[in-house]
């Protein structure tokens, strides 16, 4: 009988304890669950909007990557907030996360720098796929812009991979961003040749080439009296796509026309005086 009474008392105590805990933590748990559900819904809605916005403005891969990072961060903050609402001590947990984040950041310092460089390139667009650029000692066409690297392809079909961190923080020349380019040429004639005749030939060849633009006007000037030649500087404006065609054709046509018109193209010469010692 006494054992039964003790058992009843223990049950009553357990019920009272459960009731006390339920009254104390029940509202907190319910509120925490509501916060978790509503928070996850808001985060997912925000991430969908962010991903849609980024995809329309920058590279789709980068947009998805940035959205996933924001999703992880926001969900971690939400979980910590929910745990704190229930009464769980989160100070040590936050300290551990901070230490882990610092360690990961130091370990991935180079990768994070390249990622930030990729974001800068995709947002500010100093170049785009298909542009011919000069960077890091290479002149090549942009084949692909990735999250951490930019892929270039040279004229002889070599693939060059440049980290975005280095590419975004150093000087870079976008060669064909503008619709027109200037072709700079240098031709030399002999000192005994007629300057006016040579200039007339150059002007005629440029006028015959329909790829040479009328504006800005072509320039033909004597730029140097060199050791063995009188040098002409010729500057022609062309559409960017016609640059190399005009560059190579002018050299070939000038050589042929100078030969036909009797204009010499001198090469370096050196006089050697020999003295005989008795």
Short description:
The protein has 278 residues and is of the alpha+beta class. The protein has helices at 2-57, 60-86, 91-107, 109-124, 164-168, 195-208, 243-261, and strands spanning 132-135, 138-145, 149-153, 159-163, 173-174, 180-189, 219-225, 230-239.
List unreliable stretches of 5+ residues.
none
**Which word captures the global form?**
rod-shaped
- Class derived from helix and strand content: alpha+beta
| Rg, alpha carbons | 38 Å
Overall mean pLDDT score? 80
Give the ordered list of helices and strands.
HHHHEEEEHEEHEEH
**What top-tier CATH class of the largest domain fits best?**
Mainly Alpha
Alpha plus pi helix count: 7
What is the name of the CATH architecture of the largest domain?
Orthogonal Bundle
Distance between the termini: 148 Å
Beta-sheet strand percentage? 15-25%
Q: What portion of residues is helical?
A: 55-70%
Order of strands, widest sheet: 4-3-2-1-5
Number of domains: 3
CATH topology description of the largest domain: Helix Hairpins
Largest sheet: 5 strands, antiparallel
How many distinct beta strands?
A: 8
């Amino acid at each position: 009988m006494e054992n039964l009474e003790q058992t009843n008392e223990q049950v009553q105590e357990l019920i009272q304890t459960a009731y006390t805990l339920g009254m104390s933590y029940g509202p907190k748990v319910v509120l925490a669950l509501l916060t978790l559900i509503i928070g996850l819904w808001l985060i997912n809605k925000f991430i969908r909007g962010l991903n849609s916005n980024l995809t329309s403005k920058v590279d789709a891969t980068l947009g998805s990557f940035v959205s996933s990072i924001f999703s992880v961060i926001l969900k971690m903050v939400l979980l910590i907030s929910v745990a704190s609402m229930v009464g769980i001590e989160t100070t040590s947990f936050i300290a551990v996360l901070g230490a882990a984040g610092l360690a990961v950041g130091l370990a991935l310092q180079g990768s994070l720098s390249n990622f930030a460089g990729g974001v800068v390139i995709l947002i500010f667009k100093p170049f785009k796929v298909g542009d011919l650029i000069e960077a890091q000692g290479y002149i090549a066409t942009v084949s692909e812009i990735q999250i951490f690297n930019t892929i270039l392809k040279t004229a002889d079909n070599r693939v060059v991979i440049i980290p975005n961190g280095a590419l975004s923080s150093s000087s870079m020349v976008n060669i064909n961003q503008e619709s027109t380019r200037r072709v700079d040429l240098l031709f030399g004639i002999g000192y005994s040749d007629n300057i006016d005749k040579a200039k007339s030939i150059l002007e005629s060849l440029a006028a015959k080439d329909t790829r040479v633009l009328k504006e800005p006007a072509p320039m033909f000037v004597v730029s140097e009296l060199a050791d063995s030649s009188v040098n002409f500087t010729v500057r022609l404006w062309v559409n960017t796509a016609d640059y190399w065609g005009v560059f190579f054709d002018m050299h070939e046509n000038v050589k042929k026309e100078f030969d036909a018109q009797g204009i010499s193209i001198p090469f370096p010469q050196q006089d050697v005086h020999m003295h005989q010692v008795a």
